[in-house]
Design brief:
homodimer, 241 residues, alpha/beta, four-stranded parallel sheet, 10 helices, 10 strands, 19% strand
């Protein structure tokens, strides 16, 4: 029998240095809402999504090429950008054939950190593309790092839950010697019957933040499996499927 | 009604910079086995425990003062030291009235990090002194950081479980806006009926490491509540009760 590839869960970008990111698949996870929006836009026919780490860079790219610029700060569309960070803003009728330049903080920062550390294969994960990501990881048979974006380097519930969902689905295909993965898996086991209620009952910090912006519908959407089942992968500074 | 103090859980020393350690009580947690051994030695009458971060420093202190030098590396008593890192080595008949100089890696490193960041009040926590720590935190009414030592900066199960046990016991006395605390609390809820079995079933990395050294009895002991119910606090480079 061939040896199973390894799987690790990195609960915060500030822990990424503990893992060997080379020669493995890094799954960048930013459930609320960067990687959910990325999956949705690409699923609905966007040509590509370019993740950038600042509003300024987003505006600059918007001037230099034909694209949609999007991003939020404190729950509002950032000044100088056109659209926000909700999956609902990117239906096929709007985004098909277009390039989306998206500025996010936690997810984009993590992606660039992984690149800087020598990652060669990066995909993005969210509940909206859970099954597609899982199938891809099983087929690839490479070592995996589930990398949670968290919130300003703090561990968060929803990204940890997504890591747990992946492990619940395909953990048996991997060698898992990683307490963080065990924690994520256990947490997901408690939450899976109703992720939204779990987030609410457990006072998830992001639950409160987004509820305060009136975004309950966004939260519920981003916690739903397989509504945008594609595998966004990073190549030449953009995400494609 | 007066405002409740805050409680945060820091799952790894590499995340400590995210928390304001000043003017709060830091609970250093290194269940397997530093903080369990510290509680035991002090409970059994040790004058003090001096935590040091290297075998060399431990040997040097041993030469300069009358004390017991102890510490392990890779499951063996480190060369040049007298005793190991098991609570069973420190019964009252042996340790009463003596000073224990203990070298550990993860727990000591975290303690020194907290000091360097300006922490003014540090205590140590383990299941062996769970109730004493909880009562102390409730009485003090100060902000709390439950700081897990982990393993080489990786999150581990047993320290996270201890944080969860504290939150299960006294969380209602605090304002908890911290997903890591929610995760720890939830994990403990799953594990509390049988912590040893939980560690075993969930392939805790420390479970395997210590079982390989033949230390099942140590693991079981360190997962038992209130066998050494004291509150070790750090003052002048040593832990006292």
């Amino acid at each position: 029998m061939s040896k199973k590839p390894t799987l690790y869960t990195c609960l915060s970008p500030a822990l990424l240095h503990l893992y060997n990111v080379r020669d493995c698949v890094i799954v960048v996870i930013d459930v609320l809402r960067a990687t959910s929006t990325i999956a949705t836009a690409l699923y609905n026919g966007a040509k590509s999504v370019i993740p950038v780490d600042s509003v300024e860079k987003c505006i600059r790219l918007g001037r230099s090429m034909e694209c949609i610029t999007a991003g939020e700060r404190d729950g509002q569309i950032a000044e100088g950008l056109q659209y926000g960070n909700s999956a609902f803003e990117y239906p096929r009728s709007f985004i098909e054939g277009k390039i989306l330049v998206l500025t996010t903080t936690n997810g984009t920062k993590l992606l660039h950190m992984a690149l800087a550390k020598g990652a060669t294969e990066i995909i993005t994960g969210s509940f909206l593309n859970l099954s597609a990501v899982c199938e891809h990881l099983v087929e690839e048979k490479k070592n995996v790092i589930l990398a949670c974006a968290g919130w300003k380097d703090r561990v968060n519930l929803e990204d940890t839950l997504f890591a747990g969902a992946v492990i619940a689905a395909i953990g048996k295909h991997f060698t898992i010697d990683c307490d963080a993965s065990q924690i994520a898996h256990c947490l997901y086991g408690n939450a899976k019957e109703n992720l939204f209620e779990f987030m609410k009952e457990h006072d998830a910090s992001h639950y409160h933040r987004l509820m305060n912006y009136g975004l309950e519908r966004d939260i519920r959407h981003c916690l739903t499996a397989d509504l945008a089942n594609v595998v966004p992968y990073y190549k030449d500074e953009r995400l494609l499927i």
